[in-house]
Amino acid sequence: MMSDTISFADFKKLDFRVGKVVSAENIEDAESLMRLKVDFGELGKRIILSGIKKWYQPKDLKGKNFVFVVNLEPKKMMGEESQGMILAAEDESSENCVLLAPESDIAPGTRVH
Predict the structure, then answer these.
(1) Is 86 exposed, middle or buried (0-12, 13-18, 19+ CB in 10 A)?
(2) pLDDT tens readout for residues 67-101
(3) Domain range holding 93?
(4) Domain for residue 5, yes or no?
(5) Which of 30, 66, 82, 111 allows an S-S link to 49, with CB 3.0 to 4.6 Å?
(6) Cα(26)–Cα(33) distance, integer angstroms
(7) What are the tens digits of pLDDT across the range 13-60?
(8) Where would I find the TRNA-binding domain in this sequence (predicted)?
(9) 100: which residues sit within 8 A by CB, 6+ positions away?
(10) What is the CATH number of the domain that holds 39?
């Protein structure tokens, strides 16, 4: 089922950026959460918490670029604050999850349209 339709103006409010994962680690006592420290170039480094532990190991993410939403309201999870969201495609069965990444190397902080 498709989500509700939003206006183009609402879509433009989202700030998508390329971020380079500087470090990644599983959060102790969290079933699915991983803590990512992400470099967004001139925007600085941020902590992003993501429920991707089922599909990825921290070593698989370090040093790689992915696409993030950087202007979400911070959210507390497991006593920590997440300052954005990594984008991923997940199938209906939740068996497969693929993180969205640029096709070639590009600078951290680059805007995604």
Answers:
(1) buried
(2) 999 999 999 999 999 999 999 999 888 889 999 99
(3) 18-112
(4) no
(5) 82
(6) 6
(7) 999 999 999 999 999 999 999 999 999 999 999 999 999 999 999 999
(8) 10-113
(9) 66, 67, 86, 87, 88, 89
(10) 2.40.50.140
